[in-house]
Amino acid sequence: MYYQSLKQFKEIIGTSLLEIDDVRLTNIITPDIPFNLSKKELITLHEDSGCDYLINISGKILTQNAGISFNSDPFNHYATNEAKVSLAIYNLKNGELLSASEIFGKVEERGSEFRNNDIPRLATSSHNIMLTGAKKLINKYKKYQIK
């Protein structure tokens, strides 16, 4: 998810976007940056990094039960893949949250007496749900793209 998100935000922001690893080459900043930061932590991060904004994206797989399945019991078969993605953009200088979004995705595999039980079905993985969710969240910011 990191590299896909980085590529998409680079298309929007251009060369103004710095990767955290590049910032760490020239500045001493905390090794772990939590997703939700207090105002004090944001201002400290601004002082330590010299950056004005932080884009924080987080993905979480909630369930991963559906995959390739044969529906041997059409009345009792049920499986889901679920994931969520959260995005937050902070103004480090002021210690303020500028924007926050979250998206949730779910794929369900249910038994059915109307399907051919000999044909396997493939459900979208939780990881792919997460990647698609991240892409959709980031696309909301395309209207701010630097041209």
Describe it for me?
- The chain is an alpha+beta fold and 147 residues long.
- 30% of the residues lie in helices and 31% in strands.
- It has helices spanning 2-13, 20-26, 39-49, 126-139; strands spanning 53-64, 68-69, 78-91, 96-110, 121-122.
- The strands form two sheets. The chain has a three-stranded antiparallel β-sheet with strand order 1-3-4, sandwiched between helices.
- Strand 3 and strand 4 (96-110) form a beta hairpin.
- The protein is elongated.
- It starts with a helix and ends in an 8-residue tail after the last helix.
- The model has no long low-confidence stretch (mean pLDDT 84).
Please sum up the structure shown.
With 147 residues, the protein is an alpha+beta fold. It is 30% helix and 31% strand. The strands form 2 sheets. Strands 1-3-4 form a 3-stranded antiparallel β-sheet, with helices on both faces.
Strand-residue fraction?
25-35%
Kindly name the structural category: alpha+beta
How confident overall, as mean pLDDT? 84
C-alpha termini separation: 25 Å
**Based on DSSP secondary structure assignment, what is the total number of beta strands?**
5
Largest sheet: 3 strands, antiparallel
How many DSSP helices? 4
Helix content: 25-40%
Q: What radius of gyration results from the CA coordinates?
A: 20 Å
Outline: elongated
Order of helices and strands: HHHEEEEEH
Poorly predicted sequence stretches spanning 5 or more consecutive residues: none
The oligomerization state is single chain
Instruction: Walk across the major sheet and give the strand order.
Output: 1-3-4
How many separate domains? 1
